[in-house]
Each structure stands twice: as C-alpha cells, then as structure tokens.
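This part of the workshop introduces the protein records we will be handling. Each record describes a single protein and holds just a pair of labelled lines. Instead of coordinates, the fold is spelled out as a row of discrete tokens. To make this concrete, we reproduce a full record directly below:
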Amino acid sequence: MKIKKSESSNINIFYTLWQEAIAYHKQNNYPVFPIFPKEQILLEIDKGLHYSVYDKSDELIGFFSLALEDFVIWEEQEQNDAIYIHRMCSKRKMKENNLSKMVLAWGYEYVLKNKRRYVRMDTWGDNKELIAHYISSGFKIKRYRQLGHIPELDSHYDNILLVMFENEVKKYKDKQ
C-alpha cells in the first residue's frame, strides 16, 4: 500500500467513499459526520494537505486530510509541533486491513521528516467502536474535551464530547 497527495480528478471517488461511510454509521447508529463541501476538499488538495491511500493494485481505497495546526481544538497544546489527521475514510472492505494503523505509521514518518513531535487526531467521544479501533491501531487518548458552540468549527462539533488522540514520535522511534 502507498500514500500520496490526492488529485482533484478523484473527487467523485472521495465522495463515494464518504457516502458509504455515512451509510455504515447510520446503519449502526454511530454518530454521523456531514458531507464536506467539494470546494473544501479541493482547496485541501490544492494546498497539498489531502492524501489518498492506494492498495497494491493501485486502487484508491481511502483518504484523509492533514492539518499542520489546530488551535481551535487543541488550544494551548498547539505549539506548531504536531500534525493533525482529519476525515480519515476507507472502503468498507479495508476495515480489516487497518487503514488507521497505516496512516499513523505514515504520520510518524511525516513528523520525523518535518521536525515535528506529535501525530494528533480527534473524534466524537460517544463513538466507542471508533475509539476502540483507533486505540487498537496505536493511537493514544490524550484527553476528552466537552465543546460548546465554537463559531470557527463546523456545526457538527457543537456541544459534543471530543476524544483527542496524541502520539509522540520520539516514543515510536524508541520502540523501533
């Protein structure tokens, strides 16, 4: 498998994968993320902050967004020493192949190359299955944060309990 910067020509594939994930979450009564505007994803692609995951036969099987700062969520912990993984999504068949673990490993390498310290991400605190999945993929819970209404965030963040994950890359290197 390989990860590389996304191409705008794949926007319809990204939307199909996202819609499949939404249907799966609805079917299983999990929290459901909204569909993000195509313009937002295209802007991330243009900035080089959207990544695609391909299998051995070069089929696009997943994607995620990368942020280099996240002051709104991480507040005082944001020290320009982390990367943030957002909107990770994969084909349903990839769940067993653990795309999350692969993205975390990619994140470690990215952090090392770019002289940062942490890989971070967040999700809804009431999505127990996803939290357990991320933990089994190697992510570590940093803290829980109860949000109110934060105008800078999309409305699906309003008044939710957020679980925040953080992995220090130094610890990863020590285990190698």
About this structure: The chain has one domain: 2-175.
